[in-house]
UniProtKB/TrEMBL annotation:
Residue ranges crossing the lipid bilayer per the database entry: 21-42, 286-308, 329-357, 377-399
Domain ABC3 transporter permease C-terminal per the UniProt entry, residue ranges: 291-406
Record lineage: Bacteria, Pseudomonadati, Bacteroidota, Cytophagia, Cytophagales
Species of the source: Arcicella rigui
Membrane topology, from the record: Multi-pass membrane protein
The name this protein goes by in its record: ABC transporter permease
Amino acid sequence: MNLLENFREGMRSIQANMLRTTLTALIIAIGVTALVGSLTVIDGIQSSVNNSFAGLGANAFDLRNREIFKIRKDGEKEKNYPPIDYREAKLYKEKFGHSAIIGIKTNVSMSAEVKFESKKTNPNSRVMGTDDHFMDIKGYKISAGRVFSTNDLQLATNVCIVGVDIVDQLFGKKGNPLDKEINILGQKFKIIGLLEKKGSMMGGGDDRVIFMPLETGRKMAEGRSLTFDIVTSVPNITDIDNVMEEARGVMRVVREDKIGQPDSFSIERSDSLAKQSESITGILRVAGFGVGFITLLGAAIALMNIMLVSVTERTQEIGIRKSLGATPYLIRLQFLIEAVVICLLGGLGGIVLAIIIGNLFAQLLMSGTASFIIPWFWMSIGISVCVIVGLFSGIYPAYKASKLDPIESLRYE
């Protein structure tokens, strides 16, 4: 009996026990779906996060207030650094504007309720005052209308650019909000531009935003202090580290930080959050692989049990084969081929289910912003694991079958 004939015999055995083969392959498919599906969900989430941060630009960095945690360190209370004010933001832009493109932003309100006639939004809209560069650096695109003009910025006119979520709530899907007046924090504003849908890793926060000219935002906040954030875009990404250090030095001068004292502000690259999210999803991948592997291990044990039952049922067949000259090696090979083929059949079905279910869950978790993922790497891993599982599950039953005594096997009832 040659190798090819042994393979054909293994396939005939699988076809002769189609119900058992189907159920066994289904067990493997569930395990592969758990393994590849969970990893596909994580990759889908990561793609959504990457899309959210892609517009920020890897060649930009932010200057913000330094985060203060009210804790004691070595018996001393952490110093409370003052926020970046308007004068400091403008002075930094004047001093550093020759080396990079600089945008300034201030949060006028983080929980505004916007009204149009009898309709109003939920009190979760973000109202921000910006200059002429901030939106472009941060990747906000205009789908209709125009950006702020020089007169808008200098004269503090009551005009605004709104996100798609606010448009949907106030005007519906088919409404035309351009040149309409809305009420923001008790004042009338004319809509001059609409933002493209941007999405967000936290559920669409970048689409619930309203931009107004920076001076307009300052005018609306008269009587209360505002905090200003600064974003700096570098023409050449290879220079970003050097430019960041130069910007740090300029800001220390602006903030009058003394030599030897820590920065009174924070400086952070725009892609640092994306890198942090990648490290988090890396941990999730390990966890997902672990869960899927445990599921596959259970499927492997179930397959081994089924193969042992198959050896018992086919004891007489094994005795006939041995009496006709089949060697223990060929007997082992036949059972191993059966186990691997069953695993591969289940693996292919599991991969198809994993792609469908994984992408579906990723879309649900990320509010439809995740890209459709075909996880080629995880598919190859899944197939490889199926072969390993087949060998692991079939090696003991195959060994047991090869050791059966042919005379005893022929008399087995």
